[in-house]
């Protein structure tokens, strides 16, 4: 059984905004999977459809075999979400935020306290347990989002741009933590703008562009298949490391995403 099974997923927000144009995606249990795509490609719409925040127009989504429409609670029991937008109360002490979350997953008060303590310590936030989120740095707030997502011991952790706006050192720390979590058996689905993040962490990467998955494979295979071999490196390609996932990205989307989510439009004639 796959952790996540998506078939024929379509979502239009209006007559003119077709965010997902038919997504098929299977993520086996235990996989570290990355969705990589430019702004507006549809990454968050996929994630929000999985967790039930967006209602798709058609298609089906199963989480550990449970259809999210027919058995939403059974499906959600397996999921932990760290959304893109920080959505934690500004003034509520973060220790209480964590314990509250445990309650949503049916943990007793004692279990919630213990788990909150462990996670806050793992994420270097224990000293801050009595203060509100507004007193944390941006990086600490991101860590708190992930810690909260782990309160229910999810089998599947979904992270929407977890390292956006985090400095390099902290990002590397978070990567190590996520790798450890994955090797302990947690399936991870993340979206990212950071090519390096996808390349280093993910067993498979789905490249999404204009509501479609245009390629999906391991970074190595994607590079073998879609690199610019024997082509003169002009325009933005001059700035792209040869044989990298970024090169694949430029090839498939006509865009380049560099560290810090800088974007350049690349005209087709520059690529050829
Ligand atoms: P980003 O990397 O910028 O977060 P994304 O790949 O996550 O982008 P989505 O947020 O899924 O992309 O957006 C896909 C498309 O759907 C975009 O054209 C966006 O403007 C549109 N969209 C997203 N949410 C809504 C909404 N609530 N109402 C209307 N249009 C929306």
List the helices and strands and how they pair.
Elements: E1 2-12, E2 18-28, E3 32-36, H1 43-51, E4 58-63, E5 66-67, H2 72-76, E6 79-82, H3 94-104, H4 109-122, H5 138-149, E7 156-160, H6 168-183, E8 187-192, H7 195-201, E9 204-209, E10 212-217, H8 219-226, H9 245-253, E11 255-258, E12 262-265, H10 268-271
Parallel strand pairs: 3-8, 3-9, 6-7, 7-8
Antiparallel strand pairs: 1-2, 1-4, 4-5, 9-10, 11-12
The structure holds adenosine-5'-triphosphate.
Adenosine-5'-triphosphate is lined by residues 13, 17, 19, 37, 39-45.
Structure description:
This protein is of the alpha/beta class. It has two domains: 2-78 and 154-270, Rossmann fold; 88-153, no CATH class. It has helices at residues 43-51, 72-76, 94-104, 109-122, 138-149, 168-183, 195-201, 219-226, 245-253, 268-271; strands at residues 2-12, 18-28, 32-36, 58-63, 66-67, 79-82, 156-160, 187-192, 204-209, 212-217, 255-258, 262-265. The protein has a six-stranded mixed β-sheet with strand order 6-7-8-3-9-10, sandwiched between helices. A four-stranded antiparallel β-sheet has the order 2-1-4-5. Strand 4 and strand 5 (66-67) form a beta hairpin. The relative contact order is 0.15. The site of adenosine-5'-triphosphate has 11 residues, from helix 1. Adenosine-5'-triphosphate binds at residues 13, 17, 19, 37, 39-45.
